Amino acid sequence: MADTKEISSAPTPAPSLPESGEPSKDVAGLTFARRGEQVDESTGDVSGFDAERMRARSLLTADEERKLMRRVDLRIMTICSLLFLVKNIDSDNISNARIMNKGTPRNIMAQLNMSSDEYNLLNVLYYVPYIVLEAPSNLLLKRFRPSAWQSRIMISWGIALLCHVPVTNKGGIYATRFILGAFEAGMFPGVILQMTYWYRPDEMSIRLLYFYILGNLSGIFSGILAFAFDTVSGSRGLLFLVEGLITIVLGTAVYFLLPDFPPTAKWLTEKERAFIQARLPPNAPRASEMNFKWSEILDSLRDRRLWLFTLIWATFTVGTSGVRFYQPTVIANLGFTTIARAQLLNLPISLLAIFVIGVTGFFADKGTIPRPLYPLGVFAVIMACYGVLVAYPSNGAVYAATLVGNAFTAAFFPLMWPWRVQTTSRATGSAFSIGFVNSYGQIGGAIGPQIFRSKYAPRYRTSFAAAMALVGCCAVITCVTWYVTRKTEADTRRLKRARVRAERKGLAVLDDVVDRDLDRKRGGDEESR
Question: Is residue 6 domain-resident?
Fold first, then answer.
C-alpha cells in the first residue's frame, strides 16, 4: 500500500504540466500526470496511490471521462432511481390506505376492525425484518451479483404486495407487512454498495441528488394513486394490486438491464473498464474481492465511526419517521377539505423536498463547505418546524411546518451517505458497514410511529416535542462524528477541488484519500498498550 503521508491543507495552486508519462508534484505535495497516457511506475511516494491498481487512472482525457461517466450514470443511476421510486411508493401505500374512505365501512381500519394503535404495529412489523436482514442481504448481493439480487428483491416484494389484496383480518395484514419488509430489505443499501464499485465518494453526492429527487417523486405518485382510487373506486385492494404488478414487471427488467461490476460490463471497452477501477480510492471495494472475510467485519465492528453513524441514523429516523408516517393523517385531521383532496395536500411536500434536495446537493457537491454543516443545518430547520407544531396549533401553521419539516427531512440522506462511504473499506467491510448502518437506521421506522399514539391526537403536541428532542440528540452526535472523521472529510473535499482544477489543464490527480482518522486511532491504541 502507498505511503500514508498527510495531504497538505493549503489551497492547491494550479499544477504545472508534467513530462510525458512522468508524474510531477506541485508545491502542495499533490502529484499529477498527463491525461491520455498510462502513469509511469515511479509513483511510490504518492499518497494513497497503489500503482498496481491505479496505473490506468490517467488513460482517458477529461472529455472522454465525462462521456464515459454519463454512460455509467444512464445505465446504473437511472435504473437504481426507478427502484427507489417504486420502493417508496410501495412503502407509503399503507399510510395512504389508512385515510382512503375514512369514516365509511370501506376504510381499511373499519374492514379489518383495527384501532389506531393496532394500525401503528404495521410499521413495527414492516421494519423489524429490515433491521435484521439488511446487512446479510448486502453480503449476499456481493456474492450473487447486483442484477440478480435486486431483481429477486423486487419480484419478491411485488408478490408480497399482491398478497395484501385478499386480506380480510388484522392477522393477515400483520403477516403481509412483515413479509413485505423481509423481501424489501437490502434494496437500498445494495444500491449504495453498488455505487462504491463505480464511483468515488466525492462523486456520489451529485448522483444521490438525482437518485433522491426521483425517489421523492413517490410522494406525488402515491398521493395521486391514492386520490384516484379513493375517488373512482374506493378500493385499497386495487391500490395494492396495481403497485404490486408494476413492481414485478420492473423487477424482471432489472435482471436484464442493471450492470453489475466494471470488469463484467460488456458495454465498456477494456480501456474503459481499467480506467473506472483505477480511479477508485484505495479503500474502495473491488469486483475481484469475492471471498467473504470475517476479519473485515470484525475491523468494521471495532471502528467507533460505525457506531457513531449508526446512532446518527437511528436518532434521526426515530425523530422523523413517525412524522412522515402520520403526514397524511395529520393533514386529513386538519379539516381543510374532503379526505380525497387531503391526499393532494401531500404533493407540495414532495415538490419542496425535491427542491431542497437539489439545492443542498448542488452546493455540497462543490466541496467548499465541510459536509457535516449541511445536515446540521437540516436539523436546525426540522427542530424549528417541530417547535411550531408544538406551540402553534392553527391549521395553517401545522400544514406549513409539516411541509417544510418533511421536505428538509428528505434532504438528510443524500447529504449523509457520501460522508459515510468515505470511511468504509474493502468489499466485505463496505457491504457490512453500509448494510449495518442502514438496517439499524430502520429502528426509526419501527419506533417513530409509536410516538404518535392515538391518546396524543389530534394535534400530537407531545409527539412532536419528543421528535424535536431526538433530532437535537442527532445533531450532537453528528458534531462528535465530524470531529472523529475531520481529517478524512477535509482530505476528500480538498482532493475534489484539486481534481476539478487539474481537469481544466488536462491532468489527472494521482493522490487519493488515506484514512488518517483510522490510522491515528490505531496509532493511539498501540501507544496505550
Answer: no
CATH number at 324 reads 1.20.1250.20
Report how many domains make up the chain.
1
Print the SS3 string covering 94-140: HHHHHHCCCCCCCCHHHHCCCCHHHHHHHHHHHHHHHHHHHHHHHHH
Angle (CA) 339 341 344, round 5°: 120
Q: Which of 105-109, 400-404, 405-409 has the highest mean pLDDT?
A: 405-409
Q: How many CB atoms lie within 10 A of CB 165?
A: 15
Q: Which residue bears the cell 423481501?
A: 183
Nearest 5°: the CA angle 458, 463, 468 is 135
Rounded to 10 deg, the angle between the 461-484 and 486-504 helix axes is 70
Q: What is the pTM of this model?
A: 0.84
Q: Encode pLDDT of 120-132 as tens digits.
A: 788 889 888 988 8
Strands 507-509 and 24-25: unpaired
Residue 71 is classified by DSSP as H
Instruction: Indicate the average pLDDT of the chain.
Output: 83
Residue 4 resides in a domain = no
Q: 169-207: per-residue pLDDT in tens?
A: 999 999 999 999 999 999 999 999 999 999 998 899 889
Is there a domain that residue 41 lies in?
no
Contact partners, residue 316, CB within 8 Å, separation at least 6: 412, 441, 444, 470, 471, 474
In whole angstroms, give the CA distance from residue 269 to residue 429.
Answer: 29
**Pairing assessment for the beta strands 507-509 and 31-34 based on DSSP bridges:** antiparallel
How many CB atoms are closer than 10 A to CB 249?
14
140 alpha carbon, distance to own chain's centre: 19
Name the residue type at position 352: L
